Amino acid sequence: PFRLRVAPRRSTPHRLVDGKSLALQLIVSGRFHACGRDLDYSDIEALDDHICRCKLGSYRPGKALALAREAVSVDCTPAQRAEACVALERLTMGAWGELEKLRRIQQSRLAQLPHRAAGPRCRAPPAEYLESPKPSRA
């Protein structure tokens, strides 16, 4: 799991989130907001590092953010902006497909839970624990 800081400038407290799912959601939505706050660039870098370190795929929110900035930059030529738009659209559509795959997997696993829960979850306690306690004679 990815440790997303609750407070942007402090390392604790944090929330554990699915890093791949978060990255895909950020790319698809285009909104860099999670767990009730806007994400800082350091959060995006940390998420990119997590995705790379854990080998969770090639979809990195930092790349999407860079392409989005390039697509609207006045410093780029119209051809560069158009190329950035196309690359961002390709990245977004790929991330959307991956997110749908991930959701299908999660739904499939959730659907299997009731079947597992029907069986015994733990061993029965020993019989002596089930008997009512005898009153003590004092």
Low-confidence stretches: 134-138
Largest sheet: 2 strands, antiparallel
Overall strand count:
4
Query: How is the largest sheet built, in terms of strand order?
Result: 1-2
Radius of gyration: 24 Å
| Spatial separation of the terminal alpha carbons | 56 Å
Mean pLDDT: 84
Percent helix = 55-70%
Instruction: Please give the count of helices.
Output: 5
Question: Per DSSP, what share of the residues sits in E-state strands of 2 or more residues?
Answer: 5-15%
Short overview:
This protein is mainly α. It is built from five helices and four strands. A hairpin with a 2-residue loop joins strand 3 and strand 4.
Keywords:
single chain, globular, mainly alpha, two-stranded antiparallel sheet, 138 residues, two-stranded antiparallel ribbon, 5 helices, 4 strands
What this model shows, in words?
There is one protein chain. By secondary structure, this protein is mainly alpha-helical. Helices cover 58% and strands 9% of the residues. A two-stranded antiparallel sheet has the order 1-2. Strands 3-4 form a two-stranded antiparallel ribbon. Helix 3 packs antiparallel against helix 4. The N and C termini lie far apart (56 Å).
Task: Present the secondary structure layout.
Blueprint: E1 2-5, E2 14-17, H1 19-29, E3 33-34, E4 37-38, H2 41-53, H3 61-72, H4 78-117, H5 127-130
Antiparallel strand pairs: 1-2, 3-4
Helix pairs in contact: 1-4, 3-4
